[in-house]
Design goal:
It contains 18 helices and 15 strands. By secondary structure, the protein is of the alpha/beta class.
């Protein structure tokens, strides 16, 4: 078995105070008198799996309801793979789904102790449990579900063909959207091209060099103070090296002092170091004088140079205001603009290329859709045959079940056709959509037939049937019971029923009861076996007054069920 629900624990939910139910593999039935709370168990299962629930679900007088479902997912590969993708670990191959509903209506969701969003929580619930009740019977009336049921029945080859059709459709849609975007924005594209051309030409015309603005700023500062620089440099040069007034310069005086000290050093050798020091100072003065002379020459600039530098700086500042904070950014913008220009120039070619690609993908989709259609029609014939056999076993042997196809307009994600299940309850009447002619009891049996067939290929471990016996009686009820037991060989089945003919097939029989303790009503559960189970089956057959004949009938039902489930 592909995994199963092991335990459901519920606290402070509606009329449930504190209740725990242990489930087993196979067919688990839940019975009880009307109003005892059987529907509460189904509600609790739906809520713990992520169904919407507000503060009204919390037991009166309590702050919160807490629901916990423990699943054995040891062999549930689909569930294990999804949990691995979401980085949710398993504890000894068990998964605990835990939900808290506060009286204020807020909910908290946890998987193995990790808080998760509702979307992930619900996805896990759908992978683990499939509900089938009156609401799900109504979903069979929705033709949008029929194609999905047929595809699941078709199995791996059909699903692979459908995946290929979906992949090609997505690729086709993406190419079409890109093409439409290119076509619709053609005017904007040419307007942008004009703008980019202007920007590129403006930057190219300026012949910008990285760091040029910093160099010009320094030159501009120098040129603005050139007259003062020339005057000070001339003055310093005259004081250091060559005086126009004929006065001795610093170089002259220090040179004379060095000469005198050199002569003295013949009498006092210690003066030799001072002579060397003065000669070094003399060399520094001469070098400084040469620099002053060079600075004086530079300051004698040609007329108009300052205006040229300031004009150039003004141009560079305008470029930086438009295209970047620095000249490096301006040049980078120019490269990006050139690349965008190239892309836009290629857009026309790209549009032609995309147009061809769209047609090519459409042809590939049509070929894949034909393969999918063949698989669907092949599966439809098999499904019609198997449903006919199942319906015959469910006392509906004279009905007609057909799978009809209607073409879709243009490429679609799920293929080239819609699928509709047609049904004729009486010989001679043309098959019509289920919604137009099927009764509640007939719908229940059609859905059960489909569930029985799909159980072999369905990955959902646990199936829950809520009052699937509604509107069914006689031999048909016996056939329904056998089908539920049969599904239980591949899946865990939990069935809420009023029919003893179904309950007698249970692998485990849960009895729901209601009692008043301490002035408050509470719902409880117990597992029935032996005489207690016979007593409950007899009550289901006879009502409150259980007769010996009812007990005898109940015993016969159990014996008949044993002969079916354990044939000799």
């Amino acid at each position: 078995m592909k995994g199963m629900l092991r335990r459901l624990a519920v606290k402070n939910f509606a009329l449930i105070d504190d209740l725990t139910i242990e489930f087993t593999p196979g067919l688990n039935v839940i019975t009880g008198e009307t109003g005892a709370g059987k529907s509460l168990i189904v509600d609790a299962l739906q809520v713990v799996l992520g169904r919407r629930a507000g503060g009204e679900a919390v037991r009166t007088g309590s702050e919160k309801a807490v629901l916990e479902a423990v699943f054995d997912v040891n062999t549930a590969a689909t569930v294990a793979f999804f949990l691995h993708q979401e980085d949710i670990g398993l504890e000894d191959e068990y998964l605990i789904m835990w939900r808290e509903v506060s009286a204020g209506g807020r909910s908290l969701y946890r998987l193995n102790g990790r808080t998760v969003p509702l979307s992930i929580y619900r996805t896990v619930g759908r992978l683990l449990v499939d509900f089938h009740g009156q609401g799900e019977q109504q979903s069979l009336l929705q033709e949008s579900t029929h194609r999905e049921l047929l595809d699941r029945f078709g199995g791996a080859p059909l699903l692979a063909a459908r995946d290929e059709v979906k992949r090609l459709y997505d690729t086709w849609q993406q190419a079409r959207q890109e093409l439409e975007k290119l076509r619709s924005s053609e005017r904007d594209r040419w307007r942008l091209l004009d703008s980019l051309n202007y920007h590129i030409k403006e930057i190219d015309k300026a012949q910008v060099r990285p760091g040029e603005d910093e160099e010009l700023e320094k030159e501009c500062l120098f040129l603005r103070h050139a007259e003062k620089i020339a005057r000070l440099a001339t003055e310093a040069y005259g004081l250091l090296y060559e005086s126009e007034s004929g006065q001795p310069t610093a170089t002259d005086l220090i040179g004379q002092a060095a000469s005198v000290l050199h002569e003295l050093s013949t009498f006092d050798q210690e003066l030799g170091e001072q002579v060397a020091a003065l000669e070094g100072v003399l060399g520094q003065l001469q070098e400084t004088a040469r620099k002053c002379a060079s600075l004086r020459e530079r300051a004698a600039f040609e007329p108009g140079r300052l205006d040229m530098v300031e004009e150039r700086l003004s141009l560079l500042r305008r470029l930086k205001q438009r295209y970047g904070r620095t000249l490096d950014e301006v040049l980078r913008y120019r490269e990006e603009a050139a690349a965008e220009k190239e892309r836009l120039l290629q857009a026309a070619d790209r549009a032609d290329e995309l147009e061809g690609k769209v047609k090519e993908i459409e042809c590939a989709w049509e070929a894949a859709a034909r393969v999918l259609s063949r698989e669907r029609r092949r599966s439809a014939r098999r499904l019609e045959e198997e449903v006919a056999r199942e319906l015959a076993a469910l006392e509906m042997g004279r009905v007609t079940f057909q799978v009809a196809f209607a073409p879709c307009a243009g490429p679609a994600a799920a293929g080239a056709e819609e699928v509709t299940f047609l049904f004729s309850p009486n010989p001679g009447e043309p098959p019509k959509p289920l919604a137009r002619i099927a009764s509640g009891g007939e719908l229940a049996r059609v859905m059960l037939a489909l569930k029985t067939i799909l159980a072999r290929v369905d990955d959902v471990p646990t199936l829950i049937f809520d009052e699937v016996d509604a509107g069914i009686g006689g031999r048909a009820l016996q056939a329904v019971a056998e089908r539920l037991w049969k599904i239980g060989q591949d899946h865990q089945v939990i069935c809420v029923t009023h029919a003893a003919q179904i309950a007698c097939y249970a692998t485990q029989h849960h009895h729901i009861y209601k009692e008043v303790t301490g002035g408050r009503t509470r719902t409880g559960v117990r597992v029935l076996s032996g005489e207690a189970r016979i007593e409950e089956l007899a009550r289901m057959l006879a009502g409150k007054e259980i007769t010996p004949l009812a007990r005898q009938h109940a015993e016969e039902l159990v014996l008949r069920a044993r002969r079916v489930v354990t044939p000799s």
